[in-house]
Amino acid sequence: MAQWAAGLRAADSTLALVPTMGFFHEGHLALMRRGRELADKVVVSLFVNPIQFGPGEDLDRYPRDFERDRRLAESVGVSALFSPEPVAMYPPGFQTSVAVSGLGAGLCGASRPGHFNGVTTVVAKLFNIVRPDWAIFGEKDFQQLAVIRRMVLDLDWPVKIVGHPIVREADGLAMSSRNVYLRPDEREAALGLRRAILKARELLAAGWTDAAALGAELERFLLSLHGAQIDYVRLVDALTLQEQTKIDGRTRLMLAVRIGGRVRLIDNGALTSSSTEAAWLPS
Ligand code: AMP
Fold it and tell me: For 153-182, what is each residue's pLDDT tens digit?
């Protein structure tokens, strides 16, 4: 992979990298298409990264279909699919970890200890192997995107991070490889995440500005869904991911809900139309 990418760079081709864990859906394909717009060549990594899964999580049952993924990637003009074996990424003796301490600590980092260190470590390796000009990540994993932006700024990585809006099913459910775990009767509860975001916008439009009151109302709504358990409901500043007391133009609603005791789903959304993307650009 490294040699192939170096060959392209020597021929003055630009490269975009889309890191994934495979089992592609339209969300992944949208990131790949964005890569095609930005760069001459798109590399997609397909690696179910063992070190970002905790004990008892779904590493062993994570959905996989390499042949289908290969066809889909090809159909949107991806030049290379990089799918290393775990032992090639983490050979015996491997002992280094990249950690973004602040942004990775709360939200999913609190529910999934070690998760973001696994993510930043593998993404650091991928950046060094591929050395892309751009790397594209989905806002579906909003905290992950923030953690990676921070890592790249802090470590002076010469790669431009591009965030892509959440791609949803026609009914509003955020696309996710894990949606295949949902039974048909659990779909209704899963849709509650999107509905909670829309509800938050409605309440804000109706004059609610107190984050604690709004959060409590959204929790009540989510708890009313059959089979839903709340992991977190947080109104945070989109840049710092710190909890807010008053809603403002930077508020992001962050949700993690467990459905039927088994399927952990995340979703998020801005509560106003202002964008925080520009604030991440180096000055
Ligand atoms: P994953 O394979 O789930 O690790 O996701 C790979 C990349 O695709 C990550 O940057 C995700 O944020 C992004 N992604 C996953 N689902 C979506 C979606 N529904 N919309 C936009 N991006 C997504």
Answer: 999 999 999 999 999 999 999 999 999 999
